[in-house]
Write a structure and sequence with these properties.
Distance between the termini: 58 Å
Shape: globular
CATH superfamily: NAD(P)-binding Rossmann-like Domain
Largest sheet: 7 strands, parallel
Helix content: 40-55%
Number of helices: 9
Order of helices and strands: EHEHEHEEHEHEEHHEHH
Radius of gyration: 20 Å
CATH architecture: 3-Layer(aba) Sandwich
CATH class: Alpha Beta
CATH topology: Rossmann fold
Number of domains: 1
């Protein structure tokens, strides 16, 4: 129970549920959010094992300061959870450049900067666990979420490569792939494109309306998700990818079937493309 967790994006959703679970389990926790007033209640009951820090993952100076303060307070960082992220709804053609770039800055580049900031400490320790919260949307793409999917596919690919780079150093990596959970992701945390093209009514717009419509009523329980993440981190052999939710498992298996179908159907053409010397 002497492990130190560093969690980003703790004001709401998975981050808040996970910070609560880990603190209650007796771990030391660096609880972060863009505004510390949003997380002061989380740390109030755990003055000896927690610290609340302001952190915008797009701000290099805040990243460096938060990591330095975490190590200064607890002496190490054992588990980094990259949870901070946003969503965005819009067909590819409708998507606005500024919104897309902002999402990439948070979901991909901010996550990458956090990893780079924490790795020197983990390499020195010869131990650590990096947990990157992606999405089933990082394995299976959906209309209205194309650029969001792109950020999460990027997280998945980056994380898989990272796992192979740091395994010899005693550092583990796990990608969390949730489906629909009762967080604020489909609420105020995800903007809509202001551009509306009627031709996408039956695809992107319908998907967006469906997801928005059940926001707050998704089957996934954030508290159970938090327990599942802790279980994976505590495991001797944690998974590279941890799917959370029935929808995630269903869509993950469907993606496997689709890949196998295309691979097998076109195997002859695939192999023919090699030109023997």
């Amino acid at each position: 129970m002497n492990k130190v967790w560093f969690i980003t994006g703790c004001s709401t959703g998975f981050g808040r549920a996970l910070a609560t679970e880990v603190l209650q389990a007796g771990y030391s926790v660096v609880v972060t959010a863009r505004k510390t007033e949003d997380i002061e209640d989380l740390v109030a009951a755990y003055p000896n094992t927690s610290i609340a820090l302001a952190l915008d993952v797009t701000n290099d100076a805040q990243i460096s300061s938060a990591v330095d303060k975490a190590v200064g307070r607890f002496g190490k960082i054992d588990v980094l959870v990259n949870n901070a992220g946003i969503g965005y709804f819009g067909a590819i053609e409708e998507s606005e450049d500024a919104e897309v770039r902002r999402m990439f800055e948070i979901n991909v580049f901010g996550l990458g900067k956090m990893i780079s900031a924490v790795l020197p400490t983990m390499r020195k320790q010869h131990s650590g666990h990096i947990v990157n919260v992606a999405s089933i949307g990082g394995l299976m793409a959906f209309p209205a979420l194309g650029y969001y999917n792109a950020t999460k596919f990027a997280v998945d690919g980056l994380s898989e490569a990272l796992s192979k780079e740091v395994a010899p150093l005693g550092i583990k990596v796990t990608i969390i792939c949730p489906s629909g959970f009762r967080t604020d992701w489909a609420g105020r945390s995800a903007n809509n494109s202001k551009i509306v093209i009627d031709d996408y009514a039956a695809s992107a717009h319908q998907t967006k309306d469906n997801i928005r419509g059940y926001s707050g009523n998704q089957p996934g329980d954030p508290a159970r998700a938090a327990k599942a993440i802790v279980k994976a981190v505590e495991a001797e052999n944690p998974p590279l990818r941890l799917l959370l939710g029935v929808g995630a498992l269903k869509n993950g298996r469907l993606k496997l079937e689709q890949l196998k179908h295309d691979f097998d159907t076109w195997a002859e053409t695939t192999e023919w493309a090699d030109n023997p010397l």
